[in-house]
Task: structure prediction
Amino acid sequence: MKSIFNIAVVATILGFLFVSSCKKDVEPTIAEIHVVSKDGVPIPNADIMLTCTSSVNRPCEIEIIGKADKNGVYTKEFDLPMVLLVTGAGNILDSQLVNVLPDTQWIITRDTICGFTTISVKPEQTSVQTVILYDCK
Result:
């Protein structure tokens, strides 16, 4: 009787080991947004806002605000898949040296550019979308 009990205990332990070793690794659900100008140049430190899209007349409960990194990329991990509206805005700085020495001066101009798109964040994948920024009007 004792040997049957020992066999049952060993079989149960081996069953638990087998089931736990077969557990599937779950990939994270990630949204990766690339922010570029109309010429394809990455916009560093661009402002990003993610909001929900809904076909039902309900208020939006998702509003995520962030900044792109120095390469113009913003990454966010989500628990669930969803469709989001992506709004981006950035600045393009340009400098120009005018006049002749010694009466020179630097003229710095700053243009604000903006744009929007949607992203479908898929479960257990990295969803990549590019938002192209144009002159704001």
In short: The first helix runs from residue 2 to 21.
